[in-house]
Design goal:
The chain is of the alpha+beta class. It has twelve helices and 14 strands. Strand 8 and strand 9 form a beta hairpin. Helix 10 crosses helix 12. It starts with a strand and ends with a strand.
Length: 403
């Protein structure tokens, strides 16, 4: 199992995407119209610093999130925030400050600051807009994400099932209805040097336009030729988009959001995942029984308040397993929703430390909450859970993955 802790930080900056050695036409093909922003174009960036390591059994923490904010924040504010990156940050004097190169540089700058702790920086994720983000990993792998939006009508059904089977499996969704979809296309490089974009603007723009023209405002069951003999499910549609992109670009995976809280993800070799988000409200107090009051106060700060405090937690469970090509489903949506609801019910509107048994002998840190929740959900989805995420706030995220 791999446990990670993520801290979200924001900064604002301007940049120009341009390689000095290329002519105007080459830069336009690589970066699009933004390359013409002679004095820079601005973005409000969101950076996630993702750490992994052992959890201290006494404190319940993999790393003190306040430490991430303090140390990484100094780098962000000194070198990135309110800067014209091309000129104010020497790392981008030669390399264009694309999302993927900024994510890489954030990792390079921040990782050494944590050489004195057991937790290590695992990845830096950077969102520059709702349409584009990137991730740089400790092993040198880089990913860039592009988002596509489209609206369609559909009947959820499989032409390989009988009418009765479709009704039993999909219920009211077999009637004509529609969704506003968001698809995330992820491209990956095993070794990224930051000197040019991971994906060129002209190729991704052509890809996104082709997909939009094919899918947007169409009736999937009848008007999209490639879907005529396929199940019309979220899982199947994600797989179809993956296959279509693969004919144009070397895509790594595709995630398709049918709703903000529900998605399917398609990888190579017909590998499919299904994810669902469910929230809950609870109170807690961070307090380690083996530490003195003074030590607890210093370690947890305001979170050690004697009368407790609370959060609107958000959980996200992702399941894998065998994809059924006949029905076009990976896992029953209602069963996944019920599994999460049943697992969370004992915690809803409760004080986690005082009213549940899960944290009688362990601090209710995000790390311990996600570890306690995993077996509850996993047992209800027949051990098909592959990833579980917990947002304590928008800025603090805890993730457990099956390895």
């Amino acid at each position: 199992m791999l446990l990670t802790v993520s801290k979200r930080l924001e900064f604002s900056a301007s940049r120009r995407l341009r390689v000095a050695q290329w002519n105007d036409a080459e830069n336009l093909r690589a970066f699009g119209p933004e390359t013409n922003a002679r004095y820079g174009s601005g973005r409000n960036y969101v950076a996630y610093f993702v750490f992994t390591g052992p959890v201290d059994p006494t404190t319940g923490m993999l790393i003190n999130i306040s430490e991430i904010k303090e140390r990484a924040g100094k780098i962000v504010h000194a070198r990135f925030d309110h800067k014209f990156l091309n000129e104010d940050n020497s790392s981008f004097h030669e390399a264009p400050p694309t999302a993927e190169s900024i994510a890489r540089q954030l990792y390079v700058d921040v990782a050494p600051l944590f050489s004195d702790v057991e937790a290590k920086l695992f990845a830096c994720h950077l969102t520059e807009s709702p349409e584009r983000s990137a991730t740089y990993y400790a092993n040198g792998v880089s990913e860039v994400n592009y988002w596509l939006e489209f609206s369609t009508a559909r009947k959820t059904m499989s032409p390989r099932l009988s009418v009765e089977e479709n009704l039993r499996l999909f219920g009211p969704a077999t009637s004509t209805h529609g969704h506003n979809y968001r698809a995330r296309l992820t491209f990956r490089s095993e070794r990224f040097d930051g000197k040019e974009p991971l994906v060129r603007y002209d190729t991704i723009d052509a890809c996104l336009r082709a997909l939009h023209n094919e899918l947007d405002h169409h009736y999937l069951n009848e008007q999209v030729v490639g879907l005529k003999d396929r199940p019309i499910t979220t899982e199947s549609l994600a797989g179809y988009i993956y296959e279509r992109v693969k004919t144009m670009l070397p895509v790594h995976r595709v995630r398709l959001h049918e709703r903000d809280d529900f998605f399917a993800e398609a990888w190579a070799d017909n590998v499919v995942f299904l994810g669902l988000q469910v929230g809950f409200h609870a109170a807690h107090r961070l307090h380690a029984a083996n530490l003195s009051d003074a030590e607890n106060s210093k370690l947890y700060g305001k979170c050690n308040n004697l009368r407790g405090h609370g959060h609107s937690y958000l959980t996200e469970a992702t399941v894998g397993g065998e994809y059924d090509v006949r029905s076009g489903t990976l896992y029953d949506f209602v069963a996944l929703k019920n599994a999460m609801a049943e697992s969370l019910e004992p915690w809803r509107d409760r004080h986690l430390d005082l009213e549940t048994e899960d944290f009688r002998n362990a601090p209710s840190t995000g790390e311990n909450i996600v570890r306690a929740l995993w077996p509850k959900i996993d047992s209800r989805v027949v051990q098909r859970l592959v990833r579980l995420r917990l947002w304590e706030t928008a800025n603090n995220r805890f993730t457990l993955r099956r390895t």
